[in-house]
Amino acid sequence: MSTEDYKFTLEAKYLKKAKDELNENDSDRMDAIEALKNWINEQKHLKYPTGKYYTINLLRILRYAKFSQIKARQTIENVIQFAFKYPDIFFNIDTTDETFLKIAKTGHCIPLPGYDDEGRKVLLFRSSALPFEHALKEYGIDAYMRSFRGCFLSLFQDEMTQINGVVLILDMTGLSLRSMTKMNDPKFKSIEKDSQEAIIGRLKSFHFYNIGGLFEAFFTLCKAVMKKKLIERVKVHVNLETMYSSIPKRMLPDEYLSDDYTGPSAGSIQHLIDLEVKRLTSEKCRNYVQQQFKRERYFYDPNLKPRESTVVQHFRKLNVD
């Protein structure tokens, strides 16, 4: 995809939402992408992919930055710094890798089909499917985080998700003190904290379900690594009934619906796992992830960065009546 052949194909209401919430305009979208691309290509201290395949990714960055060139440039720097600080979880992810798929097949992280009533993607994380201490012992922290990042970030090639964002359901059923103790691992906490500056996407809300008496301790752990604005988006559900007011039943797996419910659903957990494996191993998804995270397409040397650099905000014409 190049800047010349990009077309906005979503419904008009999402174009309006992109304009109202993200400052995106049809009239100068391509100019904004070109300005960001030119800035990247002019830098001596960093390299970030800008070829024709990456137009949708540059647009994702601009949407995340609400079309501020200043924030977009800082976001790129944040991503590259994160990449070289944690190369083993950032670079060369292959969604068809044997270990990657083993982790995916546990169903610990499942995108639910379709979108909620606000056009957002919903991601279900199930603690009991792959307890954290088991993940560390069997796969190691790098493989575990690569799997999560590959699943999560591959969702953002979708423009609906770029514009409307992601909602996370965190089913903490079976969370143990042992798992929480392992979550205090210094490397894991460092990755979690730093990754918030390197995830280019709108995280709209976090729905914790069935966390029980460990919530206070767990939330204390979360607050140590989560930004304040993300903490403010946390909602806790003591039962499924309260979650139904936030997540449409039609999107939920059968296992999360009452026995007397007869309406549409997403199907069984195993069905959703099969769909996710099929998505991850598709040529489209695999190519997207591989192209995004090729190590040779990134470079960062802070010693080459100019001491003073003038950042010019992308100019937009004012519509004056």
UniProtKB/TrEMBL annotation:
Record-linked InterPro entries: CRAL-TRIO_dom (IPR001251), CRAL-TRIO_dom_sf (IPR036865), CRAL/TRIO_N_dom_sf (IPR036273)
Name of a matching Pfam family: CRAL_TRIO
CDD domains for this protein: SEC14 (cd00170)
UniProt cross-references to Gene3D superfamilies, sorted A to Z: CRAL-TRIO lipid binding domain (3.40.525.10), N-terminal domain of phosphatidylinositol transfer protein sec14p (1.10.8.20)
Name used for this protein in its record: DgyrCDS10718
Coiled-coil spans in chain: none
UniProt cross-references to PROSITE patterns, sorted A to Z: CRAL_TRIO
Molecular function GO terms recorded: phosphatidylinositol bisphosphate binding
Domain spans labelled CRAL-TRIO: 114-264
Gene Ontology, cellular component aspect: membrane
UniProt organism field: Dimorphilus gyrociliatus
